[in-house]
Amino acid sequence: MAPVKQQKGGRPVRSCIKAASPIGRRQGTEDFPFTLKIWALAHQIPPGHVSTYTDIAQAIGKPKGLRAVGHALARNPLLEVIPCHRVLTTAGRIGGYGGSKTDPKRLQRKRELLASEGVHFDPDGICRVPKWHDFKDTTPQQLRELQHRVDQAAAKTTAQDRD
């Protein structure tokens, strides 16, 4: 049985319903940065599919954290590995790309990337493709590997900036 929880008004309530363990709270992953966990989930979205900021927030165990998901994806250093272009708003619209919600060139680039994968938008700018939310649990090893790739990309960028 689940532990005792306080309900509004201070009355203790017990729940016998076991909630599914959110991906972001898997044993052994709590020491990894929240942003890395978001990138790991976005990495799972296959070509030709889209998901939403809300779906990722729910999968990581932070259902109200969709803005945090957006901020993390805006800082994505590995566009070829972490397909943040496959993440849309809950309404199926493009929320932003490359750290911008208003730059028409960046938003058009996101639309082009999705179109190249077979994802299209109706005349109102809404993607009618069913949303993908089959996220798998991310292991500590997978997070370490992704962190290593991010570190390599950062080192490469730093070296190029010095040249």
From TrEMBL:
Keywords: DNA damage, DNA repair, Methyltransferase, Transferase
SUPFAM superfamilies: Methylated DNA-protein cysteine methyltransferase, C-terminal domain
Pfam families registered for this protein in UniProt: DNA_binding_1
UniProt superkingdom: Eukaryota
GO annotation, biological process: DNA repair; methylation
GO molecular function: methylated-DNA-[protein]-cysteine S-methyltransferase activity
Catalytic activity, EC: 2.1.1.63
Catalytic reaction(s) noted: a 4-O-methyl-thymidine in DNA + L-cysteinyl-[protein] = a thymidine in DNA + S-methyl-L-cysteinyl-[protein]; a 6-O-methyl-2'-deoxyguanosine in DNA + L-cysteinyl-[protein] = S-methyl-L-cysteinyl-[protein] + a 2'-deoxyguanosine in DNA
Gene3D superfamilies assigned: Winged helix-like DNA-binding domain superfamily/Winged helix DNA-binding domain
UniProt record similarity statement: Belongs to the MGMT family.
Protein name per its UniProtKB record: Methylated-DNA--protein-cysteine methyltransferase
